C-alpha cells in the first residue's frame, strides 16, 4: 500500500453535523482536505467513512499519520 502524502502538519478544524456521514481523506491528495475527493483510487487506498456523533468543531488529522483516524492525535508533532 502507498504511504500517505502529508496534506498539512496541523489538524483541520471542521464543523461536523451529528448523524451525518463524512469520508476523511487518507491519501493526502484530495483538493477538498480533509475530506475525500476520490484521488486515492490510483494508490490502492480508501477513505475513512464515519458518522459524526456530535455537532460542532472537530479536529481532523492533516498529516495522515494519526492512530485515531480520522481525528488528530498529535502525530504531526513527531514528523
What does this structure look like?
There is one protein chain. The strands form two sheets. Strands 1-4 form a two-stranded antiparallel ribbon. Strands 2-3 form a two-stranded antiparallel sheet. It has one domain. It is 0% helix and 23% strand. The chain is globular, with a radius of gyration of 12 Å. The chain has no helices and four strands.
What is the topology?
Elements: E1 12-16, E2 21-24, E3 48-51, E4 56-60
Kindly state the mean pLDDT as a whole number? Answer: 94
Strand adjacency order, main sheet: 1-4
Order of helices and strands: EEEE
| Helical run tally | 0
Report the major sheet: 2 strands, antiparallel
As a percent range, the share of strand residues is: 15-25%
Got a strand count? 4
Distance between the termini: 20 Å
Cα Rg: 12 Å
Overall geometric form: globular
Low-confidence stretches: none
Question: Which class best fits the helix and strand makeup?
Answer: mainly beta
Helix content: under 10%
The overall number of domains is 1
